[in-house]
Amino acid sequence: MSKTLHKPLFLIIIFILHSFTTIHSKSFNFQKQKQTHLHFYFHDTVTARHPTAVKVAYAPTTNTSRTLFGIVMMMDDPLTVGPEPGSKLVGRAQGLYASADLNELGLLMVLNYYFMEGKYNGSTLSILGRNAALTPMREMPIVGGTGLFRFARGYAQAKTHSADFKTGNVVVEYNVFVLHY
User: Fold this and answer.
1) Can you tell me the distance from the alpha carbon of 68 to that of 64, in angstroms, rounded to the nearest whole number?
2) Quick one: pLDDT at residue 30?
3) How far apart are CA 94 and CA 114, in angstroms?
4) So what's the pLDDT on residue 113?
5) What is the C-alpha separation between 92 and 52, in angstroms, rounded?
6) pTM of the model
7) What is the pLDDT of residue 14?
8) CA-based diameter of the chain, in Å?
9) Ranges of the chain with pLDDT below 50
């Protein structure tokens, strides 16, 4: 008798779970995945009257390390259409980067691209990865996003446009390729 009661209950649970999954997947529109390419310039200004990146932590040996190993910088860097400082602002790169390599300038990048213009206004893309800053072309993973970039994945290619090694100020060209729903 108990086997007969469990069979309908099991079928009811399966039906409910299937219904929830179907409703849930339709609400996120999983069937319509999009691919987006974004192009912008990242302005990291550490030496200026109003810097956009500041040192928040360092190790006792940071200043004697040729890679500044252990330094942690917090940033709120402008993202612009062109490489000029006065170019149209499209968003901000907000987060931190830290020197995490003893042998070469290898940065741990933990940041959000926060978009403030046009179609993507209010949306974000999240980066978590290694940036070998002195190589001509770097690639970092997109690990998520919000708004129109919900469930995002992809990669960001970075290429230094200009660098002033006296001041530490850098402009980096980004090409970002994202899959999202």
Assistant:
1) 7
2) 64
3) 7
4) 98
5) 10
6) 0.83
7) 74
8) 83
9) 25
Predicted confidence at residue 6, as pLDDT, reads 62
Q: Within the chain, how many helices (H) and strands (E) appear?
A: 1, 9
**87 alpha-carbon distance from chain centroid:** 22
CA dihedral 142, 146, 150, 156 (to 10 degrees): -20
> How many CA atoms lie within 13 Å of 164's alpha carbon, on the beta-carbon side?
11
What residues are paired with 99 via a beta bridge? 107
- Which residues contact residue 61 at a Cβ distance below 8 angstroms, ignoring those fewer than 6 apart? 69, 70
Q: Which two tokens stand for residue 148?
A: 């129109």
Q: What is the pLDDT of residue 74?
A: 98
Name the DSSP class of 88.
P
CB 53 within 8 A of CB 68: no
Tokens of 129: 């990865």
